[in-house]
Specification:
Blueprint lengths: L5 H4 L3 H10 L13 H25 L51 H9 L4 H14 L11 H21 L7 E5 L2 E4 L6 E4 L2 E5 L2 E6 L2 E2 L4 H14 L6 E6 L3 H4 L5 H9 L4 E4 L1 H13 L8 H8 L16 H7 L3 H12 L6 H13 L24
Length: 387
């Protein structure tokens, strides 16, 4: 292949003739030259054969029984003196010192607790061998009497993980409806620095909370997500108990043709209750009222965060001081304060829930046990309650 104006661009006449010849019918090329690598290899092999033959001739000649082999130089068949000195291979094998045999069998110190501690502290197999060998030496134990190398430690850790997973699956048999949750995340791969799509799959129910797996996805399409969720809950044997699915309001999940929710129902052969994420539902409500934004951030909140250091936080106005607001909340003021104070004493899984309660109590004119403190704005994307 060549560019259309290749003949005009080329400056070497030989290249032009070659291109024209390749565009004609028939074969105009042939193999030429000598394979220098193969020729050199054959030449060295011939020298070795010639040197062996000359050496055998010298040994057969009458003379002193001892021959200094280091002083002998052999000539090839062409008469040229070689640079190599030939030493014939002895029939007897060199004596290698054997390791002393020990009757004591090497001990295996890898237990389930040790494997779990290594996994929890994110210690690699190589570092585990190094640390364990130093620990054995510190307690006057010989590391050679212990099965301790990177491969064996890695195999034992894998075996214990599989054993633990199997035990968890065998003891997990819920008899009530379950909700399956999933949410794709872009995480760093276990090997290398490449980021891959991971799908944490989680089920919950009355007194039940279980992480089923975090499989790797080739892509984040609805088909891939539905297949991963279906395979996971089928592997755990809980497909009959799953009756609700919780998900984000993304196109890959709620698509009416290729969404993960629709495809999962088809794979299970039954209808499921759709329980969309409350954060992402609230994201859709103001989007329909004020227009959707392609950016995950809100410019108004971002500017508010940048100017936070220049705001006098000690100067603020309570809600009841505003006549317009007071008129609208006067009838429900006591109920809102009662609810907020009661929920404030409950432990919440998310800090932004607690922050919302604190701001509500402050706005309605009451003080908090620790005083009035305004926190610096944190995350301000659409999925937060602030939006």
């Amino acid at each position: 292949m060549a560019a259309q104006d290749a003949l005009q661009v080329m400056k070497i006449e030989e290249d032009k003739q070659f291109l024209l010849a390749q565009r004609e019918e028939g074969c105009h090329g042939r193999m030429g030259g000598v394979d220098k690598t193969l020729a050199d290899k054959e030449k060295r092999a011939e020298k070795r054969k010639s040197s062996q033959a000359n050496y055998n001739i010298i040994l057969e000649q009458p003379g002193p029984s001892h021959v200094d082999r280091n002083q002998i130089k052999f000539s090839s068949t062409s008469g040229e003196e070689t640079d190599e000195e030939y030493t014939p291979v002895s029939d007897s094998k060199p004596s290698n010192p054997k390791k002393p045999r020990t009757t004591e069998k090497a001990k295996n110190i890898m237990t389930s607790g040790l494997a779990a501690s290594l996994d929890r502290t994110s210690v690699s197999n190589r570092n585990a061998v190094y640390n364990l060998s130093k620990v054995l030496a510190s307690v006057s134990q010989n590391p050679s009497h212990v099965v301790l190398n990177r491969s064996s430690v890695g195999r034992k850790r894998t075996d214990y993980r599989l054993k633990v997973v199997q035990e968890i699956k065998e003891h997990f048999y819920p008899n009530e409806p379950l909700t399956v949750h999933w949410d794709g995340k872009l995480l760093e791969d276990l090997v290398g620095k490449k980021h891959v799509d991971r799908l944490p799959i989680f089920v919950s129910g009355h007194g039940i909370s279980k992480l089923l797996g975090v499989p790797k996805l080739v892509s984040g399409t609805g088909e891939m997500v539905a297949t991963a969720v279906f395979n996971t809950i089928t592997d755990w044997g809980i497909s009959d108990q799953v009756s609700v699915m919780s998900f984000d309001t993304t196109a890959s999940n709620i698509g009416h043709c290729a969404g993960a929710c629709l495809l999962l129902e088809k794979k299970l052969g039954k209808s499921l209750l759709h329980l969309a994420c409350r954060h992402h539902i609230m994201e859709l409500v103001p989007g329909n009222a004020f227009g959707k934004s392609s950016s995950p951030n809100v410019i108004l909140f971002k500017r508010f965060q940048k100017k936070w250091a220049f705001i006098d936080q000690s100067c603020y106005q309570l809600g009841p001081a505003d006549e317009h607001l007071k008129k609208h909340i006067l009838l429900v003021l006591a109920d809102i304060l009662s609810f907020a104070n009661a929920e404030f004493r409950v432990k919440h899984p998310r800090d932004d829930y607690r922050e919302l309660l604190e701001l509500t109590i402050i706005l309605l004119g009451e003080s908090l046990p620790g005083g009035v403190v305004f926190k610096r704005p944190g995350a301000f994307h659409h999925a937060r309650w602030m939006s």
